[in-house]
Amino acid sequence: MEPAVVRVTLSLVGPGMFTIFGIVFGGIWFVERSRTHLLFMATGCLLAAAGAVSQILGLPGDIGLNALVSGFFYTSAVLTVAEGIVRRSGRSFGIWLHLAVLFLIMGLLWYFFYVDRNLLARVYVQNFGYGMILLAAAVRLSDLRRGRFLDRVLFWTLLAFALHFFPRTVMTIGFSAPVGVAAFANSVFWQTLQLSLAVLGAALAMAILAATVSDLIDDLRRERDLDHLTGVLNRRGFEASTRSLWASSSITTASLILCDVDHFKAINDTHGHAVGDQVLQRIARVLQQSARKQDLVGRVGGEEFAIFLPDTTPAQAFECAERLRTAICRADFSDLLGARSLSASFGVASQEARRWERLYRNADAHLYEAKRRGRNQTWSPDINDCFPVANQAR
């Protein structure tokens, strides 16, 4: 086999890989169409493959036109990939910025071929330009450095891919470009370019794929662990999150608040289950808005909610429960219940030992005591036994 044929065949390995990644990204997007970043990634990979094929096979045959066509594909690919990566995190560069960068790079490529024919300048425009685009994406996503493991992998892979354009270009082409198409195809710059794009490009694509799979798994877990009516954690999700938080942190003391809506069966019987569902939804919002940022809120039964409070004393937990109880009493349910008032009973338990079953059992017993004593009150023996006035409903 002719050396030139072997060289061209090996050069097509890179675009072949990008095509495969493009198909994979497109297939995942077809199933999960809400994740638009996957469509951008698929389009970017296919544009990169088209640019490489255009340049390697000399399509179109005119050198100047080929430089512009392949340059357009390459530049569009880098811009699209950068947009896709930042869109995964809910951000965007905006269409006008993309068009401005595309116009600038294409204008420089046209100038350095048709006005001041300078291959070296075109090499630096493209490589440094692409490095700057990807570096801008890395800067936009700098907060990923403190995120999940796969987010950190994605950030550092993107940063390495962006930065490699600068030293590789300087070290392999320097300040004099090869003369002639054959010399350029056999140059250290071209061979190193193909290798680096194949290795680092594939690494970046794999990092994005891994992060996307992780996103899908996290979404499935959230869907599994959320109560679909109220939007807070369901019992399974609440217990799993509580155990995980307790086991993986430096929490020394914790408290659990159980909340039960008073006379909820009567609400369902009088106003119907649809109204009862709306009442539960509104109570869940009140609890979320009134709880602390670090607290966990869940629905653990029909009309029963739970709030896990890390690093709290019994007095702090009681104060929080009273704040929640008061917030429910003050909430406006008149559009659902008319003149009927709404209240809830609260049971509070605190402990240092990390025994979830014991903590829940104590809070449940205290909730029962609050209901037995007349409802619409908070019961915690650590507080009520010492200060009986705290047990009086306000």
Notes on the protein architecture:
The protein contains 16 helices and five strands. Helix 7 packs antiparallel against helix 9. By secondary structure, it is of the alpha+beta class. Residues 387-394 have low confidence and may be disordered. The protein starts with a helix and ends in a 10-residue tail after the last helix. It is elongated, with a radius of gyration of 31 Å. The protein has a five-stranded mixed sheet with strand order 2-3-1-4-5, with helices on both faces. Helix content is 68%, strand content 7%.
Which properties best describe this structure?
5-stranded mixed beta sheet, 394 residues, alpha+beta, elongated
Structural class: alpha+beta
Largest sheet: 5 strands, mixed
What percent strand?
5-15%
Question: What sort of overall outline do the alpha carbons produce when their principal axes are compared?
Answer: elongated
Rg over C-alpha atoms, rounded to the nearest angstrom: 31 Å
The ordered string of helix (H) and strand (E) elements is HHHHHHHHHHEHHEEHHEHEH
Low-confidence regions: 387-394
Helix proportion? 55-70%
What's the N-to-C terminus distance? 92 Å
Strand order of the largest sheet: 2-3-1-4-5
> Number of DSSP strands?
5
The helix count comes to: 16
Please describe the topology of this protein:
Elements: H1 3-11, H2 13-31, H3 36-57, H4 63-88, H5 95-115, H6 119-140, H7 149-173, H8 181-185, H9 188-225, H10 235-248, E1 254-261, H11 264-271, H12 273-290, E2 296-299, E3 304-310, H13 314-330, H14 334-337, E4 344-351, H15 356-372, E5 378-379, H16 381-384
Parallel strand pairs: 4-5
Antiparallel strand pairs: 1-3, 1-4, 2-3
